[in-house]
Amino acid sequence: MTTAAAAATAPPFSSPLARRSGPHAQEISAMSVTRPRSRLRSSAAAVKAQELWSHVPSALRLPLAVFLSCQACYLLWWMAFHPGLIDYDALAYTWQVTTDHWISNHSVLYNSLLWLSLNTTGGFGALTLLQTIAMSAVLGYTCASLRTLGVRGRWSAPAALACAAAPPLGVFTVYVGKDVPFTICAVLAFAVTVRLVGRRLRGSWNGRLRRSELLLLCVAFLGISLFRNNGFPVAVIAGLSLLLVLPGARRLIAVLVTVTTAVTLTLMLVVYSAVGVQKPPRTLVYNLHYADLAVTYAQAPGLFTQDDLRLMSRAAPLSDWRTTGATCFASDPLYRKLNRHVTDQLTEPLVQLWWRTLRKAPQKVMGARICRGHIAWAVFPGPQDQGGRTYNSLNWVNPTFYKWYPEMRTSPYRQASQPHPPSQALRDVGVFAYAASRVPQLEWLLWRGAIWCYATYVLVTRLTRARGCRALFALAGVTFGTQFTVFVATPSPCFRYMAAPMFIGVLCLSLIPALRGAARPVVPPPASRATPSTASDTSPKNVEYTQ
């Protein structure tokens, strides 16, 4: 037999292991071959990923890593609750923009974004997805800004990831509501403040805002003012905190705050009505005044004359005034009882009655306001039987909604607002995590912003003392502005009103490791003889502090 014939008739090659392993030898041999191939593919992908990552500038690696990590978490929440969390207010926005009943009692800017999402995609998913992307980007930028304070990425990145992974804050980002973009802009204002104060802390402040800082600060202040009707005081307080600590840029910051506030008030008072956006009913505008009257009447009915009682009874039965007044934590129960058409006509005499009541018993009216602002200053919730618990139901629609908005019963967008998750198993996990986070014993920590406000104040104060730089107090400007405005005027103890201080408070936890470092003054180097190339350079005169 020739060599070629022997080769043609010889059995195929098999390893010694295959020859000893019986009938499954070929299968085992194939597995031993495919495993190295899969490992080679995975190692090749890892090498390619490392190569791509090496091309990313070092300054962008931390914010990019935070953005991708947070976005991955938000995508899971978004798919679990797709198209988003819907409540009473979300359907009210939908009714306004789909039935041509635009009213300025809600954010017209957010309603415009909602209208755009509904008309381009037919649902809410595009809007909520955009919210997650914006929040992830802001969290990444915040971590990059915290580096100017000496906060390493190993400290700030986990704090940002906690904002995306924790059910209260993670689920909140996919909620269809104006408070989400307001919170995004508030965190952005905090991040820009951190960057500006960090420049002064490190001795690199030259009295000028960079273009990117000025642009982001303008976007943040406009968003804070336009996404929440009473949000412009937050921008003013945050701007004032910067005004006091940034010499050289005070005029520019004052102009920026003035212009953004003027634009907001002009839109609300002039432009909206000129383009056909209706003004809110007068009963809604003075809702808090009527709630003050109800609380005072329930506690001290002898302060009201017979004429006063007859006036109040025309708006609602006195029994409704008395029963709703016993609950001082919210004004919404009384608003639902009022005959709105009649009350709108009685606005002037009812407001005059409020002023007379304020003069007679200021402690009652002020007590009602402080009680209603409970969500802003109190760490623990109030009594459940008096409505003092935190309102955190972002995915529940009160059945009375369809009584006030009957068009939504047959609206196609009612079906579009129903859950459509791509995976039912993923939704079950999301619903379980969201429900588990609502344990009453942890409500003060997970659902109320007051504890995070105080944590921010403590951490900022400690950092200010450790670094010896009072400019660091500006870091608390956005938190204080939000807490103050919610305390002054809020209709109910809703969790979403204080979400911004919660995000900022969690991010400020990354300051704790930075407190261990002692402050070291940065002294300018001795001035050398001026040369033609350095004659225009000047050394800083003030001593700054850094870690």
Automatic annotation (TrEMBL):
Q: Where is the composition biased (Polar residues)?
A: 536-547
Does this entry carry the keyword Protease? no
Q: Where is the composition biased (Low complexity)?
A: 1-10
Keywords in alphabetical order: Membrane, Transmembrane, Transmembrane helix
Disordered: where is this region?
1-23, 523-547
Q: Which residues cross the membrane?
A: 62-81, 123-143, 155-174, 180-198, 214-246, 252-275, 471-489, 495-515
UniProt keyword Repeat present? no
Could you say which residues form the signal peptide?
none
Coiled-coil positions: none
This one is known as: Glycosyltransferase RgtA/B/C/D-like domain-containing protein
Output the lineage of the source organism.
Bacteria, Bacillati, Actinomycetota, Actinomycetes, Kitasatosporales
